[in-house]
Each structure stands twice: as structure tokens, then as C-alpha cells.
Amino acid sequence: MPKHTRAGTLTVLSLTSVVLGVTLAVQAGAAPAAPKFLAAADLPPHPSSAWTAGKVTDGVPEELQLCLRDALPGYDSRYRDFRTALDTSARQLTIEVGTKAKAAALAALLNKEIRTCADRLEQSDPEIEATYKGYGKVAVEEGARVHGLHTETSYGATDIRLLSVGRDDRTVTVVEWSQMGDFSDAPVKAFKRTTATAVNKLR
């Protein structure tokens, strides 16, 4: 092989190695992938209607502000809505913070806000009667807790909500399921499975 051809080949190989090295370095230092959200199939089965999932959107869904408005300002968050053809709906909110300690503190605050939400709702509106019920923990990653909230208005409207707060590393997620009804209509076991799936998808 002529000397100038050999030299050209070595130069190309050298440049290729440099480019490959830079690419691998960029990949190694790349930010971790964003947490995944629940899919429609992960929600508690509805007896007569399929779930549909909306797009992942920045912000906080209006429904979750009912109990968590005071705990969420200042955080970058994303959420996904879920619907059935009837009155049942759901949503998932995910928040990434800087450290595990901050995530643990945020999860504790969110759980507290949900536990005290019934009292605050009654104080803010004399037409509402609200009742809280705790459904315990879900053993997944850094833990999750499930809550129930029933509201009834003086004009007869009655709604049941299941809410959960879960955490994995620096990420916190809140899942809410709601429909017309009372505690007897709440699919607690299925919702706990949904919560476990939501937290596992944060990895």
C-alpha cells in the first residue's frame, strides 16, 4: 500500500475513534430518561367502559388542586388524564426534585394535605360534607400510601375519590381515581395495584 494511502487510512481511523469517543462520553453523561406514566390498561377496570389516556402535559390538573393546591407551587410537574365514557376519571401527577431528602419531604407533605383535605373542604364551603378514610401503605420502592375522600353536597351530589402518593428516588407521583358514589364504590385493591405500577414506572 502506498505511504500516502496508508496515512490517509490512519487519519480516517483516528477521526472515527475521536468521534466515537465523544459520542460515548455524551451518552454516559446524558440526563436520565423522564419517568414513564401509567397507561390506560393500568387503571382499575371499569365494568362497562374502556379507559382512554390523554397526552402527558406540563402543570397540575385542576382536580388535584382541590386538596393539594398549597403543597405544589414552585415545582416543575407533569400529568396525564384518563377518561371513561361515563363518569369515572383518573389522573397521574409526577414531580422530580433535586434530592431524595426533598422527595421524601414532598411526599410526606402531600400525604398530610390529603389527610386534612376533608376538614378544609368543609371549612371552605358549608354546603359540603367530606369524609376521609385511610387505606394504608403499598410496599413498592420507597413506599406509597392510599387515601379515600368522599364528598356530598347539600343538593345531593356525592363523589368518591381514591388518591395515592408514592416515591422512587428523587421522583414523587400522585394518582387519583374518581367517580360518583361513596366508599362502597371504591375499587381499593385494584387502585393499590395501579399505584404500585405507577411507582415502578418512575424508574
Would you mind describing this structure in some detail?
The chain is an alpha+beta fold. The protein has 2 domains: 30 residues; 168 residues, Protein Transport Mog1p, Chain A (3-Layer(aba) Sandwich). It is 33% helix and 30% strand. It contains 5 helices and 8 strands; from the N terminus they run H-E-E-H-E-E-H-H-E-E-E-E-H. Strands 1, 2, 3, 4, 5, 6, 7 and 8 form an 8-stranded antiparallel sheet that branches. The termini are far apart. About 11% of the residues have low confidence.
User: Major beta sheet, specifics?
Assistant: 8 strands, antiparallel
CATH class of the largest domain: Alpha Beta
Termini separation comes to 53 Å
H/E topology pattern: HEEHEEHHEEEEH
* Helix/strand/pairing category: alpha+beta
- Please compute the radius of gyration using only Cα atoms: 24 Å
Number of strands: 8
**From the coordinates shown, what is the CATH architecture of the largest domain?**
3-Layer(aba) Sandwich
CATH fold topology of the largest domain: Protein Transport Mog1p, Chain A
Helical proportion, percent range: 25-40%
